[in-house]
Amino acid sequence: MNWTKNEFIAYILLYAANSDFTESNEERNVIISKVDMNEFQKIHEEFDNDNDYQSIQKIIHGLEAHNYSKEEISELLIDLKMMFFADGEFDTQEQNMFLLLKKILKR
């Protein structure tokens, strides 16, 4: 796995968008506002073929590979919150996913 930083961002945002098992147009638009369409499509195809365990492992690996600073992690958490609120709801599944991702990102 040799992702660029943008590909990593696309993947983690896709993971967040799918936490409630649906991916809305608003959520896709948030991701595409952060990365270009080619990166989005490439990463989406990979994401679709991964199970939950593989996704978590890739997120952990991507975070380590890009050596995120505390400031970058804070920015990523803001992007994740924006993703969760993109469809106008922040339901229990999304809240739980945010807590999980926050824990992973702040290890």
Outline the structure in words.
With 107 residues, this protein is an all-alpha fold. The chain has a single domain (5-105), classed as TerB-like. It has helices at residues 5-17, 25-34, 37-48, 52-65, 70-85, 92-105. The chain is globular. The mean pLDDT is 93.
Outline:
This protein has 107 residues and is mainly α. It has 6 helices and no strands.
Please tell me the total number of domains.
Answer: 1
Using the 3D structure, state the CATH architecture: Orthogonal Bundle
Could you give the count of β-strands? 0
Largest sheet properties: none
Q: What quaternary form is this? A: single chain
CATH third-tier fold name: TerB-like
User: Could you name the CATH class?
Assistant: Mainly Alpha
First and last CA, distance: 21 Å
The run of helices and strands is HHHHHH
Defining traits:
globular; single chain; 6 helices; TerB-like; 0% strand; 107 residues
